[in-house]
Design a protein that fits this description.
Layout lengths: L1 H26 L2 H11 L8 E4 L3 E4 L4 E6 L2 E6 L19 E7 L1 H4 L9 H8 L4 E5 L7 H10 L8 E6 L3 H4 L8 E5 L2 E5 L5 H9 L8 H20 L1 H17 L1 H29 L2 E6 L3 H4 L1 H6 L8 H12 L4 E3 L6 H7 L9 H20 L1
Parallel strand pairs: 5-6, 5-7, 7-10, 10-11
Antiparallel strand pairs: 1-2, 3-4, 8-9
Helix pairs in contact: 2-8, 4-15, 5-10
């Protein structure tokens, strides 16, 4: 009797899940479509990177690869240092202002050809008065960008350093998957390199923490990860249930998450203050370019969130930090027209379209111009 009841329960659950899967596929809710894309999309740093003892990883040097997803097809070429740019020269062109751009996938130009990236467009429109050096690496945290600036960028003597800031950079400072991270101690924040290991690099490029295990545990973990990825990439029902479960978890942990977010922002400020000090010592002008999150501006994305506009506390805190420390900055989030908002990002992907890069380049050049003229 008990056995029959158990079988009936399993059959009922399977039937319900199949019914839910069919219904969701018929309705095709956009939030689930976007979520499935996020799990199935190609990630450039996972197949075009090499380990680095200080930064965790960097792009392959003198490399070339296709980087394609549903909404774009691009070609990625890197110079001898592994950056998506021409070869960097230490000697500046006479009369030119050299700008170093440091950031994550937005600075790198995810979803755009090299000549479409906003840093490239700024150089092209300046009639050789500006040398734009693109040090953007997809997935980098603010800490990685600072270490890159300190250990490599300074040798090229930039006149202006532009930090390209996106709100997830704050969380990335604490994500130890094959990168240096910040640790909070009784004396403040310290840089921890424990995650920068060959094993962590393998886990990073495969996006699978089971690579950190050994023996049977590694085999089982890898098997379960593959099953989870299959459902993430192919099942509407799985993503529907998973998304609602995570939303519930966030509500239950709201108070604790609030404390963690505050700690993470204090860590971000800690890095930024070190950056400010280093730029002052090197007589380099610092500028912060804040990237708009499409959850704040795109109508259809806001509608997917029940009509609620995403409140981006990290963007607002960065604006406050810039004002308090008298750092020039750009934040176009509240300046865009409705038409501009709808074309700034891809529909599925959360990065700039070529239009977004063009518009952002125009706005950024206007803001940077006074620094060039000084």
């Amino acid at each position: 009797m008990l056995r029959n009841s158990f079988i009936l329960l399993i059959v009922s659950i399977v039937f319900f899940l199949l019914l839910l899967e069919g219904a969701l596929r018929f309705i095709n809710p956009e939030d689930i479509e976007i979520r499935m894309y996020q799990f199935s999309r190609s990630i450039i740093q996972c197949y075009f990177s090499e380990p680095d003892q200080i930064l965790g990883w960097r792009y392959k040097r003198n490399g070339e690869t296709a980087f394609n997803n549903i909404e774009f097809k691009t070609t990625i070429k890197t110079n001898s240092l592994g950056f998506r740019d021409d070869e960097f020269e230490k000697k500046k062109k006479e009369g030119a202002t050299r700008i170093a751009f440091l950031g994550d996938s937005f600075a790198f130009g995810w979803g755009a050809e090299k000549n479409e990236v906003f840093s490239e467009q700024i150089e092209a429109s300046s009639h050789k008065k500006i040398e734009s050096y693109n040090f953007g690496v997809s997935g980098y945290s603010t800490l990685q960008e600072y270490l890159l600036f300190k250990h490599e960028v300074l040798q090229f003597n930039p006149d202006i350093a532009v930090i390209v800031f996106y709100d997830n950079d704050v969380n990335d400072n604490f994500d130890a998957m094959s990168r240096p991270v910040l640790k909070k101690t009784s004396e403040g924040f310290v840089t921890d390199y424990q995650g920068v290991t060959p094993e962590n690099f393998q886990a990073f490029i495969h996006q699978d923490k089971s690579f950190l295990e050994t023996g049977l545990k590694k085999t089982v973990g890898h098997f379960l990860k593959n099953i989870k990825n299959f459902f993430r990439q192919n099942s509407y029902a799985y993503n529907f249930i998973s998304k609602r479960t995570k939303q519930l978890e966030r509500k239950l942990k709201a108070e604790n998450n609030g404390k963690k977010k505050e700690t993470k922002w204090l860590a971000e400020e800690y890095i930024l203050k070190k950056w400010v000090k280093l730029c002052q010592e090197q007589n380099i002008k610092l500028f912060i370019a804040i990237i708009p999150n499409k959850l704040e501006i795109q109508t259809h994305t806001i509608n997917l969130n029940g009509g609620k506009i995403y409140k981006n506390p990290n963007r607002k805190k960065m604006v406050t930090f810039c004002k308090e420390n008298k750092i020039p900055y750009l934040d176009v989030t509240e300046q865009l027209s409705q038409e501009e908002k709808e074309h700034y990002h891809y529909r599925l992907d959360d990065h700039f379209t070529p239009f977004g890069h063009r518009h952002y380049a125009q706005q950024l050049l206007q803001k940077i111009a006074p620094l060039i003229e000084e």
